[in-house]
């Protein structure tokens, strides 16, 4: 069994570098410390008006409505019909500023092309994105943690997205009764929790830089027009893939990274940290404390005996430890 698992990870390593995530995964603490763009600390209390932090895409009927909450700047020479080189989103919320920038670069299709078209396609990708080659081990770890791998970890395996679902289901009944129905759909709280929670985990486990990288690769593929702002009417009216949803995701990714850095420091989490059910439950409850602050909703807390907590803490230790062992054997 150990030989089979080792071969699986070696095989996964060979192609995971060339396929950076199809999609991102994606209450006990009364106060968390965040840093705004100026580097000053701000106390984040679990009291305040709705949406003091992350955003819910269903609250914006169109792009103009979103622009009343965040600024959207297209950078570079756009005169003469030229595309911008990057887009910058800025949100000011309760004394905290988050900024998200997306510029041209590789996307998921580039990774698929490299995977499917031989050696020179892989070399071209390495030149186009040296970061992916340099950080291939951590990219593989993120891939495994963001996917249910029943063949390796058994039935009921847990991934990042599962916690977004559990948090949505765990909103207390008295709060659910006051929430508009559309906010309880996949495009509402679930999508927001998915992006923020997953980005928090990736930042805590690895780095803000890696979290930003996988988010950018996904967003470029999802809608490259985000960079130029040249959307079709079909995109602007789409219920499935609308620039409002994507820009909200970009802002929420930044809040997730901010949260991930805060919790990494709070718990002193490093590459050799053992993820016990107690640590994971505390971490998840702090994530929910952030949502309480941002959206004025309360949750059922996670417990050390919750099946998802027990399973995912075990998976974290297996992935972070076992992949290291496989790579050490390859070197």
Roughly how much helix do the residues carry, as a percent range?
55-70%
Q: How big a fraction of the residues is strand?
A: 5-15%
Shape: globular
Report the structural category. Answer: mainly alpha
Residue ranges: pLDDT <50 for 5 or more in a row?
A: 1-31, 33-51, 323-331
Alpha-carbon distance between the two ends: 22 Å
Counting H and I runs of at least 4 residues, what is the number of helices? 16
Oligomer: single chain
Number of domains: 1
Count of extended strands: 5
Work out the radius of gyration.
20 Å
Give the overall pLDDT as a whole number. Answer: 83
Overview features:
331 residues; 3-stranded antiparallel sheet; 16 helices; two-stranded antiparallel sheet; mainly alpha; 5 strands; disordered N terminus; globular; 56% helix
